[in-house]
């Protein structure tokens, strides 16, 4: 009761003085799965309840994305799990974390101080990993424990991509149980459930509080060798919040021990089964648990589409403009010197082969989260088609035409401007168009690092198994690509002389 009174007094003071200097807005983030998004919304509601503005950067990919963003100061708070911190972030020190009295929470608290980070005490549930099968398949094979998998090397296993590589994931699980399966693939966690129920996959990794376990009637195999550690959920936050917004750590601490596993599973079910927005679920939880009335912002379909369209166009247009400014001169330089051309085409070709998700993650320590790293990645991916087509267009000019320009006594700069570039323009425009269309598709991945765009509804739709949401991103992206095709056809008619267009078509 005393703590509640103190919190109420502090909240009243915060509401009165929220505009005071130094009380900066707080940025909350969440990973790209439903439970983490709900916890992020709950956190935002608690912070706003003490009069401090908070924003939620939803679905920012996996652990490493959020961890690096937190360390860089791009975000202030996000929900994390003790097992993830020990097994992935501090994997080289996990033996130390498990030593002594086995109090991993105390060890993590001390270890995080070295990173200028802090965490709350556990919020009340252990969302550890598990292995699950459909009840029908498990009963047919007599599967009750993970060790039973040894008897069925023919089984197809599908694990989340993060589980495939993490310290307590598939490699360690295989070694611990000496599992013989070789048909093991990485798949998105939410899509894995679809593969499991469709029969394409025999067993997948589960999170203990997944609503799908009850929804699909899955059998959770007993971890009879106690391989998986505890995954107590905590709120990880920057230590400097104590100075920037002193009441925020106390507000976060209110969640400690307040979310048992049954409650979290029920919250997940409302999102997955009943299709209730996470913000509404969080508002109901805050009202029922703390008596807080949180406003739920709702935007119409057209407003949401307009926001996603403007974000997507910003990413595509700005990155493409920068690529044109850089790539066309590179293509000209490459055409002027064979050795330079080979080097330029080689470097831009290598950039094109770097996986887009990896490139986005590489950019975060340098540029943070949001649109800057997405713009840089799209810019780099745009270079090769423009450079290659500029180079090819210039190299494909007939020698007789070049000789005519020389006979007229034109200096090199004038020849380039008046003869070479106009003749190569169809090829250059084709390269720019190719880059633009590629950018429209690749920009959807920017949603994984908070850049928005059409990728936002696509990711949410995949996470919630909502085809309608997926189509809200996929259909506009496809229409935008078609629109770009028509736009460049019009540009070609405007800037390329008719004779050059006809010549390019004949060739």
Task: Give an overview in words.
The N terminus is likely disordered. The chain starts with a helix and ends with a helix. Helix content is 61%, strand content 8%. α2 links the parallel β1 and β2. By secondary structure, it is of the alpha/beta class. α2 crosses α15 and α18 packs across α19. It contains 24 helices and ten strands. It has a five-stranded mixed β-sheet with strand order 7-6-8-5-9. 42% of the residues are buried.
Topology:
Blueprint: H1 2-17, E1 26-29, H2 34-49, E2 54-57, H3 63-71, E3 77-81, H4 82-89, H5 94-98, H6 104-113, E4 117-119, E5 129-134, H7 135-141, E6 157-159, H8 161-165, H9 170-177, E7 184-186, H10 189-198, E8 203-207, H11 212-215, E9 218-221, E10 233-238, H12 241-244, H13 247-253, H14 261-272, H15 278-290, H16 301-336, H17 338-353, H18 356-367, H19 371-395, H20 399-407, H21 412-442, H22 455-464, H23 467-495, H24 498-506
Parallel strand pairs: 1-2, 6-7, 6-8
Antiparallel strand pairs: 3-10, 4-10, 5-8, 5-9
Helix pairs in contact: 2-15, 16-17, 16-19, 16-21, 17-19, 18-19, 19-21, 21-23, 22-23
How helix-rich are the residues, as a percent range?
55-70%
Question: Span from first to last CA?
Answer: 84 Å
* Average of pLDDT: 86
Q: Compute the CA-based radius of gyration.
A: 27 Å
Class based on secondary structure composition and strand pairing: alpha/beta
User: Which outline best applies?
Assistant: elongated
What is the number of beta strands?
10
Strand share of the residues?
A: 5-15%
Total of DSSP H or I helical runs spanning 4+ residues: 24
């Amino acid at each position: 009761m005393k703590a509640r009174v103190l919190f109420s007094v502090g909240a009243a003071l915060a509401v009165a003085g929220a505009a005071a200097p130094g009380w900066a807005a707080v940025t909350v983030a969440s990973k790209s799965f439903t439970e983490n998004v709900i916890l992020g919304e709950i956190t935002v509601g608690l912070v706003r309840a003490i009069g401090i503005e908070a924003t939620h950067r939803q679905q920012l990919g996996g652990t490493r994305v959020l961890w690096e963003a937190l360390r860089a100061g791009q975000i202030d708070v996000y929900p994390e799990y003790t097992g993830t911190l020990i097994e992935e972030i501090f994997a080289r020190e996990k033996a130390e974390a498990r030593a002594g009295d086995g109090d991993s929470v105390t060890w993590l608290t001390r270890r995080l101080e070295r990173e200028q980070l802090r965490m709350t005490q556990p919020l009340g549930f252990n969302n550890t990993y598990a292995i699950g099968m459909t009840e029908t398949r498990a009963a047919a094979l007599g599967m009750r424990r993970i060790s039973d998998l040894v008897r069925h090397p023919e089984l197809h296993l599908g694990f989340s991509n993060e589980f495939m590589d993490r310290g307590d994931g598939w490699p360690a699980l295989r070694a611990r149980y000496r599992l013989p399966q070789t048909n093991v693939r990485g798949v998105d966690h939410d899509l894995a459930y679809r593969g499991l129920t469709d029969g394409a996959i025999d067993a997948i990794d589960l999170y203990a509080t997944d609503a799908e376990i009850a929804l699909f009637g899955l059998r959770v195999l007993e971890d009879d060798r106690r391989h998986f550690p505890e995954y107590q959920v905590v709120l990880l936050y920057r230590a400097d919040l104590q100075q920037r917004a002193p009441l925020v750590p106390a507000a976060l601490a209110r969640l400690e021990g307040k979310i048992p596993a049954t409650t979290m599973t029920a919250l997940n079910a409302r999102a997955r089964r009943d299709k209730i927005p996470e913000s509404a679920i969080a508002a109901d939880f805050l009202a029922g648990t703390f008596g807080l009335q949180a406003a739920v912002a709702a935007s119409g379909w057209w407003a949401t589409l307009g926001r996603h369209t403007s974000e997507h166009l910003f990413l595509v247009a700005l990155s493409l403009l920068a690529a044109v400014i850089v790539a066309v001169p590179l293509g000209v330089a490459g055409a002027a010197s064979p050795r330079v051309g080979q080097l330029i085409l080689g470097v831009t070709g290598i950039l094109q082969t770097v996986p887009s998700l990896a490139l986005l993650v590489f950019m975060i320590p340098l540029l943070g989260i949001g649109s800057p790293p997405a713009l840089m990645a799209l810019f780099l991916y745009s270079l090769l088609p423009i450079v290659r087509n500029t180079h090819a267009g210039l190299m494909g000019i007939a020698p007789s035409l070049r000789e005519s320009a020389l006979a007229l006594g034109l200096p090199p700069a004038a020849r380039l401007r008046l003869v070479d570039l106009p003749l190569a323009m169809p090829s250059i425009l084709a390269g720019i168009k190719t880059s633009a269309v590629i950018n429209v598709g690749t920009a959807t991945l920017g949603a994984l690092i908070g850049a928005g765009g059409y990728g936002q509804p696509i990711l949410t739709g995949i996470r919630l198994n909502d085809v309608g949401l997926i189509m809200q991103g996929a259909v506009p992206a496809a229409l935008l690509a078609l629109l770009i095709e028509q736009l460049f056809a019009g540009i070609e008619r405007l800037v390329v002389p008719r004779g050059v267009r006809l010549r390019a078509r004949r060739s």
